[in-house]
Protein: Streptomycin 6-kinase
Amino acid sequence: MDWVAGTVPAYMDRWAIGQRGDMVITPSSWLVPGRWHDRNVMLKVARVAEEARGGRVLAWWAGCAAVDVHEVTDQAVLMDLASGRRTLTAMCQAGRDDETTSILCETITSLHGVPDKSSAPSDLVPLALWFQDLIEPHAAKPHAGNLERAATIAQGLLEASAAEAHVVLHGDVHHGNVLDFNGRWRAIDPKGLFGHRAFDYANIFCNPSTDVALSNFHRRLAIVSEHSGLDVDTVRSWVIAWCALSVVWSDKSGGQPWTAHAILSTFG
Structure:
């Protein structure tokens, strides 16, 4: 059966949520801040199936470095509202990049540390499928030279990691997806992937801006390697593979992947 989106009014009524702010509409979700059982919450109703999968992954993590989830279906998720004043983007732009990179690494380590994978959502996307637009033989590739090399790197990483232990991946860890919940850093908005743990560190390198990403690239490699226990070359290879995939996707959608392309051109 094809997935069908829910509606905001239906879930506001179903879960008895009192709206406390304007609804935000994104290409993938409807977001409504509210009050529920004397808590500040955020209702997220998915507009696309990928977002619905992310809600189920959040619930599966059960607050382990992820936002606390109170209700979830295959269409919507009700979670705590981030109310802390700190943001990783502001900290990074204030010259605290080492600190923010470490916070992101610690969050990833905690997410990957959930011991029982057997109860994870059944529709997680394997990395081999996630990278298909980059590695499939006949994929159209802009900036062909860099992307062909990166596609070879990605294929090698996927093949080399096939026999290693895989984890449930967030798939989109960056400075805007780890928020301050009253002094606790918690992840939101996972993609719900499955594969080698190194992939989750890659998007750190593309954020929060091109100039910050480029100037801190080598320092971030060292910090991520130290926190994760992965060697620097492995981290760098996954970053290059991710940047190439981002460039391919942006080209298909008509976007401009400035940071990913800059990293690929400078360090790839």
In short: DSSP finds eleven helices and eleven strands in the chain. The two ends are 42 Å apart (CA to CA). The longest helix spans residues 232-253.
